[in-house]
Each structure stands twice: as structure tokens, then as C-alpha cells.
Amino acid sequence: MAFLIWPASASAQSGWLPTSWFPHAKTNPRSMYPLSDRSGPWLVLATTFRGDGARDDARRLVQELRTDYKLTAYTHEKAFDFTGEQRGLGLNPDGSPKKMRYANSTQILEVAVMVGDFASCDDSRAQKTLSKIKGFRPQALTGDKGKSRAFSDFRRMLGLDKASTAPMRMAFMIPNPLLPSEYFNRPQLDSFVIEMNADVDHSLLDCPSRYSIRVATFTGAGGFDQGAMDAAQDDGAESRLIQAAEKAHRLTEALRRQGWQAWEFHDRESSVVCVGSLSQLTIEQQDGSQQPHPEIIRIKNGLGPDPDKLALGTILPKRINGILLDVDPRPIDVPRSPLGRR
To answer: I need a surface site. Which of 92, 121, 134, 337 has the fewest CB within 10 A?
Structure first.
């Protein structure tokens, strides 16, 4: 099924509200307004400062963006250490790894200025703000100010340092670097699939956690592609999908009656039944090793093939109300609608 793949997504997750919707405190003239994981999933990278004076230049720009332009601007620092020995390519005659040093041994501090609180990359509010920032001419970047901006030689070569050129015209959207990559990798669904699951009582879309365990899969032996169905003159493809959905629904209800937290989900090609709601798949042990979550083991033992017979080489899937379950129950990433709701 499509949602078993983890595609990169431009959208953020639900449950987040822009801080710009709430009253702002008075700007603190000495604050750097450091970026946090609550500064929005997506931001506009306005510009970057590097080296001596980077913090002061970034602070002045953030203050101006917040005070004069009424934007929720932040700074984000990152240090680069090019001192000390580095492992090089190849080996010495005695077999030891080669040691090398950078030609310019130095430590560099970069400070980025960002404007945030955007829910997604293609948010209309984000795109409007990005367009405005590209045309801004803040005092903090005019004349002799803001000389620590990164890639100043490159900007000069392209003519971006001219007084007639907007100093932040190269601004662009970026994901919040303080959020884990998994935050942006949740499967997204289109409106058609969301509509297919709209009236389901125990929809997988309502599962509150990130993971669930797929215990049964029912395929339609084709797909819900009207063009392909017409071309093949296959009137049975849709009915097989309906039968798959009905089996998934009956199994979900049966599992619920037995006390399992069961969910069903339907898309263009198949229907699945999942059990459980987990925020993580492994549990860290005292020795630092990772072990499967106990709930996964419980579900596999309860709804998977008989482990004793499996050890003897006999694979016998479990049946519930005459419906076969999967041979190998597996964790999946719970799909979400783009707006986080059905």
C-alpha cells in the first residue's frame, strides 16, 4: 500500500499553531531570539552571518525584523571546527591511517537569521512572507552594516552587494533544523483516500500514535483506477475492492470484541487491519541495546502464526471468524491527512 513507503513531505504534522496568532511580548533589544523546535516546522532563511561580528550583525537584523517589520524572526548558530588532525585517505608505510590538517586551520561561527512559524513549505502565508523578505531593505544590512554576511565574495561577484539590489533576495524556505527528520517523513494522503475512510468508525487515521501493527491485508486484485478498469472492461475490480473493505471491517469489529485495539484503513488498491498504538518501536535497555517494544511482541504472539509450529517449519496463519490474518504482522507508519484531520 502507498502509505507503507516513507516519502519526504513538504507538509508538517498536525497539532501545531503559529505563535504569530498570539500576542507578542515587547522586543528585548539584547535578545538573540534563538530558534527552538517550537518556532514552526518551516521557516524562511533570510540571510547568514559568519565570523567576527556575526552575532552582533544577526542581533541587529532580528531586532529590526521584529520591531519594524513585525515578523517572528530568530537566530540559529552553528560552529565549524577546522582545527586538529583529520583522518586522511590512504595509509602510512607502517599501515597506520594518514593524519592530515586543513590548509586553513580555524574555527568559524555562523549565525543564520530566520523568519518562522509556518506550518508547511507551500503555506500561502509563508510564500507571501518569503516574497516580501526578498524585497526588504533593512537598515541592518545597508551601508557598512552587516559586513559579516556569509559568502560576501560570492555576493560581490554576482553583484548582490550593490545598493540597488535587495540584500535578502536570495532568501528561501527551509525546514526547522531542530526538528528530527522523522517529523517531515509522515505519509500524506490525498483527498480521495481520505474520503474513502471518512465514515469508518475505527479508522487508522484516528490512531493517536505514530505506529501500529498491520495484522491483515486484503487486496482488490487490481486497483481503484477508473481508466484502467474501463480499458480492461473489468467490472469485477471495484467489487473485489468492496469485498476487501468488508473483510477488513468485519475483522476489525471481531478484534475489538476480543479486546484488541484494532483499526482499519482503505485505499485504491487494498484494505488493511492494524492493531495497537505505539509512539516508538524499540525500548532502550540498561546496557544501551534496543529491544522490540513489548506491545509488538504481544501482538505478534497473539495474532501471528503459532510460534511453536513456526519453529518446526509449519506456517499456519491465525484465523478469526474465518478470516485469515497475515503470516508476519509488521509495524507501519500511521498515515495522516495533510490537515491532520478527516
So the answer is: 92
Q: Nine-digit cell at 209?
A: 500514535
Could you tell me how far CA 49 lies from the centroid of its own chain? 27
| 140 contacts 57 by C-beta, under 8 angstroms | yes
pLDDT in tens, 285-315: 888 888 999 999 999 999 998 877 777 777 8
CA pair distance 57, 142, nearest whole angstrom: 11
Q: What is the dihedral of CA 233, 237, 238, 242, to 10 degrees?
A: 160
Longest dimension (CA), the chain: 80
The grid coordinates of residue 37 equal 523546535
Convert the pLDDT of each residue in 142-174 to its tens digit.
Answer: 876 656 565 555 455 555 556 668 889 999 999
Domain map (residue ranges) of the chain: 2-181, 189-333
Chain center to CA of 292: 23
- Who contacts 173 (Cβ-Cβ below 8 Å, separation ≥6)? 42, 43, 44, 45, 118, 121, 126, 130
Give the span between the Cα atoms of 276 and 40, in whole angstroms: 30
Neighbouring C-alpha atoms within 13 Å toward the C-beta of 266:
25
Reported in sequence order, the residue ranges of the chain that DSSP labels E, i.e. its strands, are 42-50, 73-81, 86-91, 97-100, 107-118, 172-175, 211-219, 262-266, 270-278, 282-284, 290-292, 319-320, 323-324, 330-333
Strand-pairing partners, residue 107, are: 81
Q: Where are the beta strands (DSSP E) in 17-118?
A: 42-50, 73-81, 86-91, 97-100, 107-118
Looking at the chain, how many residues does it have? 342
How many other CB atoms sit within 10 Å of the CB of residue 214?
23
Model-level pTM?
A: 0.51
Give residue-wise pLDDT tens across range 123-146.
888 999 999 999 999 999 887 665
Q: C-alpha cell of 265?
A: 484503513
Assess contact for 341 and 189: CB atoms under 8 A.
no
The phi, psi pair for 107, rounded to 5°, reads -120, 135
List, as one string, the DSSP characters of 5-32. Answer: S----SB--SS---GGGSPPPPP-TT--
CB 118 within 8 A of CB 33: no
